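Thread: "does anyone have the structure for this chain?"

Original post by V.I.:
We have the sequence but no experimental structure in hand. Need at least a predicted one for the grant figures.
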Amino acid sequence: MLFRSLDTIFDMASVTKVVATTTAVMALVEDGKIRLVDPVASFIPEFGKYGKDRVTVRHLLTHMSGLRPDLDLGDPWIGHDEAIRLASEEVLTQAPNTRFVYSDINFFLLAEIVQRVSKMLFEQFVQQRIFKPLGMTDTGFLPPATKRARIAPTEPCAQPGGACTDADRVMLRGVVHDPTARRMGGVAGHAGLFSTADDMAKFCRMLLGGGTLATRGSRVLSPLTVARMTAPSTPGNEANIRGLGWDLDSSYSSNRGELLPLGSFGHTGFTGTSVWVDPATKTFVVI
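Reply from O.Q.:
Generated one for you, tokens below.
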């Protein structure tokens, strides 16, 4: 029997987007290696076709790129490199900065940018730059078999990809639930991260500390970077208000509840995970 506790490891699903990918991108922005206005094609040259040369890093972070929500899972593609190739072949559904469309493609492209700029595997970069300094020892991609007993299962799914209605299903436990991330090998910028409530609390305290976890004396981001990341970054005429990666007040904000005010920020994950942080009251809620 699995008893859920503070050290139970969960598939964080789309919370990956903010804990791993957004933080990694903003760390490289701090380093001066990425600018928010940089075209995606300046890092991924093959992406800049069919008018996508106008898409910037900020457009990806705010889901204002014009890309559709996901790749076509009806096609029998597999592999990280193939996902990047297919994303590069995408045709925009509207011009960049026109309309908010939540897109997993945006975030696995951001992870690819981190990988190419840092010259490190994405999973290695986030471990070295984010999780290790914060003491998040149970957070990462592709959890080892030695931790399997502590991992909460999600549901029976086909491997390596496809819908959970497919035949030949197995219970996913320590294997990412998201089918696109599974096809990409379990490491992606939009999903694939595993973590615990205890580790997530450390991450939230870092954000409330302006980028520093005081109990460890570890600085991951500067106060200015945290402030920029969690400030409105979508156009004024867009009803869905998003920060850089983070959700502020949009159609995805139901996990904010009734009491946490505007000025707070958070994100959800398809597997039922959620995080919301309020700097004004120094409150955070992790589910």
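V.I.: this helps a lot. Residues 129 and 217 are 14 Å apart (CA to CA).
O.Q.: and The helical segments are 16-30, 57-61, 80-88, 104-118, 122-134, 179-183, 197-208, 223-229.
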